[in-house]
Known about the structure:
- Chain A is 34% helix and 20% strand.
- Chain A has helices at 9-19, 55-58, 89-102, 110-118, 166-173, 184-204, 214-219, 226-230, 239-243, 288-307, 317-321, 328-337, and strands spanning 2-5, 21-28, 31-36, 62-69, 72-73, 82-87, 119-124, 150-155, 158-163, 179-181, 250-257, 260-267.
Amino acid sequence: MLFLGKTRLPLLLSRLAAEYELFAPVPSGDSHRMARSVPGLDPVFPPFRLSSSLRAFWLQPARVLATWSARGPAPGPEPKPRAIIGAKACDLRALEVLDKVLRGQDFVEPAYAAARDRHFIVSGDCTEAAATCFCTLVEGAPWPERGFDLNLSPAGEGFLVEAGSGKGDRFLLAQKDLLDEAPATLVAERDRRRAQVREQVDRQNEMVRPRSPYLQSVGKHLKTRLWGELAATCVECSACNYNCPTCYCFLLHETRDAGEVKRISVQDSCFHAGYSRMAGGGTPRLQLTERFKNHYFHKFVWFRETFGITACTGCGRCVEACMGKIDKRKCLRDLETRWIPTEVVQEL
Amino acid sequence: MDNAFVPMPAVVEDVITETPTIKTFVLSPERPISFRAGQFMQLGIPGLGEAPFTPSSSPFVPERMEITILRTGSVTNALHTLAPGAVVGLRGPFGRGYPVDHFEGREVLVVGGGVGLAPLRALLFWLFHEIDRVKRVSIKYGSREPAELCFRRLHEEWGRLPKVDFTCTIDRPAPGWDGRVGLVTTLLDGLDVDVKEAVVVSCGPEVMLKFVTLKLCDLGFPPEHIFLSMNRNMSCGMGLCGRCNVGPFYLCKDGPDMCYADIKDIPYALG
Ligand SMILES: Cc1cc2nc3c(=O)[nH]c(=O)nc-3n(C[C@H](O)[C@H](O)[C@H](O)COP(=O)(O)OP(=O)(O)OC[C@H]3O[C@@H](n4cnc5c(N)ncnc54)[C@H](O)[C@@H]3O)c2cc1C
Ligand code: SF4
Ligand code: SF4
Ligand code: FES
């Protein structure tokens, strides 16, 4: 394990900035946001994930997937590689979900795949949890275990540094002059700090801790009426989906300019009534309750059955963003505990 | 890796008017496109947009593709204005195609409604070509009115093929029509097939699919033998954009033809 003294961090980052365009958290109101960072600046490490997800780095709300003209596909200019400082464990978990769909199947989403390859991710352990965090209820933990290029864990007067990829290894190899071998006491300190934050997340979710996997507690509600009650205050704003780091739905759209055609993907949300609208006007999920249920089934049941992981990282952003004050954790608890078999709806 | 979002140019060689609202476009793509019956394409006018269609031509002829299109909205209206010589864009093929191995040695009942006969035609080409592998092909087709019967020019020819029979109906009586009248479900009354063994393939408007399926179940067809073309809303066509889901399935990659047994317990699977 390697140790980086606090005072050496700016130098390490400026070396990173020589290869990458750097993005780091900056204070914004009572929270933080990502901003392009100037080399030499001492970055702030927010205690927990930012309020907005990092999704826009790899999935811009509107992005060009293909450009071509009568002469064939036109390659765009190669964008500069980027380094992102301050990702948290749940941000990395979200990338696992997106990777499964967007670059793990027969067909690949080219803009996403290129953006993924272009980013160098420096993550960090959470030092506190936000009130809405529930990563430990969805098989997560408040420190990164994989999916980063570098991870920094606060310990002593600096950080324990770990590489999690070939890119990370190569970068660290060139920073030998800044790094020392970490004493076992610092590793123990890191583990102690990690356990404390995990405990905080567990404690604040004591009342909503599930007794059985969400796959089962949500899965048994395919045809029950509880959804109407859970969705009672939903105003169909889609804030939950737009703020979610794992949501990826899009709709294709085209533009034509001077013979050049661009195929653009526009972010979409399954909460919109028109989302499943078909030619002729029919919409299979016209009722809000069906769409609300679809959101939960997708994240906790179907995605898990298809791809082997839950499409929710427990980041709590949907809880924070909801106009209807709907707390996903409480809905999940209700789905587990309020099972009334006579409520089952029969239809074709 | 090739970018599957870039279409392949195809020249419109011919346009056949099938009915007042349906046209068949004969396309010659830049390179041959191999597809399995039931797989679909995204066809578009560059810059204007695209929509999913299942080729209505033979899967054994990859260098020339026919697509039969009902005029119903923005993209299909624009496609209907195209004349020979126009250049369109094709992406695909996408989806799994029909589970034709499952048809081996069985009676195959093909039930179509309106333009739904178009996607089924690729399967019919396959069945006619491989007729020795199945016991029989029975085609049941319905349309609103005589003028809207798709591929009317071919019906007689199909009915004369060995081991093939063709019956059609229109919804309401019409002047000059002396054929059968009634919804397509009425063609399922008094069927002379072995309901436990036969397989059924159906394509048509969502309401038709729903009532055909209910009737087939009433008649005792096992859900495992019923295959429905779920031609719903799609965008990417390849399991990435998320919008075509029916329960855990993405119709563009797991379908578009779904076995009824797999979807029957999903609320609103049939609209
Ligand atoms: C696998 C598959 C195979 C098919 N095969 C055939 C075939 O062989 N022949 C055939 O004729 N048809 C076929 N169809 C149907 C065909 O794709 C549709 O008729 C076609 O998409 C209609 O496009 P449009 O632009 O003309 O219609 P529009 O009604 O203008 O719809 C365009 C798109 O935008 C959406 N949309 C429109 N208005 C709204 C709104 N207000 N809010 C939200 N969304 C909206 C629609 O849902 C649709 O996706 C098939 C469909 C599928 C999925
Ligand atoms: S569903 Fe909510 S808690 Fe789960 S990943 Fe999305 S925003 Fe975070
Ligand atoms: S954020 Fe809340 S109100 Fe808005 S769509 Fe989601 S659940 Fe409904
Ligand atoms: S059409 Fe995009 S996932 Fe099926």
